[in-house]
Design a protein that fits this description.
By secondary structure, this protein is mainly α. It has helices spanning 25-48, 50-57, 78-99, 124-143, 145-169, 173-178, 185-198, 202-215, 220-232, 236-249, 254-266, and strands spanning 11-12, 114-116. This is dolichyl-phosphate-mannose--protein mannosyltransferase.
Length: 267
């Protein structure tokens, strides 16, 4: 949502190189980012009184330190303290909306079959928009409204242009899948094969399926779809090979068993 150059209809498994070492820069950057996020979230929760209320609900007689309260002449005024608490609540809400809706699709708690996709970020984008609004207010108070509005217009223009060009990719299925050929070739070619097959462009469909399997030969659905294509073209031998490969990759592939039986029965 911040840097929108690389977009794909689906980031399936193996489309992003795996992190295999704790020294991988991506792992280190993620560790630093999430550490900062956790510390920030905890401090905001303390400021908002969420931690204190949680302890009370758990029946624990523990009063966490409230960083917003200080004694002495340097103590902020009640009005300013209240304003900061309101801001802290908004930031905490934004971070919650940004993170929590994405967790079910994060593969952290259960396998979902893909890494990330635009469709899983819609609700999370609400939190992003709230943070953007808070940042706008902050910049207005520090930089002045004129400069802030100018910067905001630049950002909106850039993101609006990217949204427009991305909408062109979503014009139809073929264009959408073609837009991901460089980012996620196995899934893109496989889906293109289905589109071509539905349009009876069978030679192109066969080539697309084979390209997908060259990139990732363990896709049972693609082997199955290629088998269906051969079966429809009255080419039983490669159809049988495709169905058998699909079954090896997925032992419970019922339709592959069914079509394999039909091919054997007809031949």
């Amino acid at each position: 949502m911040i840097y929108t150059k690389y977009l794909s209809f689906d980031w399936s498994m193996d489309s992003i190189p795996l992190v295999t070492s704790p020294t991988d820069p991506r792992f280190l950057a993620s560790a630093v980012f999430y550490s900062i996020l956790l510390v920030t979230g905890y401090k905001l929760a303390v400021e908002c009184g969420v931690v204190e209320k949680t302890w009370k609900l758990l029946g624990v007689d523990k009063q966490p330190h409230r960083s917003g309260k200080h004694s002495g002449r340097n103590s902020p005024s009640k009005a300013r303290n209240k304003e900061w608490k309101d801001t802290a609540r908004k930031i905490l809400l934004a971070l919650s909306l940004l993170i929590l809706p994405f967790l079910p699709a994060s593969n952290l708690f259960c396998y979902v079959g893909f890494v990330a996709a635009e469709r899983t970020l819609y609700l999370s984008s609400v939190g992003y928009c709230i943070l953007a609004g808070l940042l706008y207010d902050f910049c207005c108070s520090r930089l002045g409204r004129t400069l802030t509005v100018s910067l905001a217009l630049v950002v909106l223009t850039l993101h609006g242009t990217r949204t427009y060009t991305r909408n062109l990719d979503w014009f139809d299925e073929e264009r959408l899948y073609r837009s991901a050929l460089e980012l996620n070739p196995p899934k893109a070619y496989s889906n293109l094969g289905r589109v071509y097959a539905a349009q009876l462009r069978l030679d192109e469909a066969e080539a697309a399926y084979k390209m997908a399997l060259e990139h990732r030969p363990n896709m049972a659905d693609t082997w199955y779809n290629l088998g269906v294509l051969y079966q429809e073209r009255r080419n039983p031998t490669p159809a049988v090979n495709c169905y058998e490969t699909a079954i090896k990759l997925r032992k419970t592939f019922a339709t592959a068993y069914l079509n394999l039986g039909i091919v054997h029965h007809e031949n």
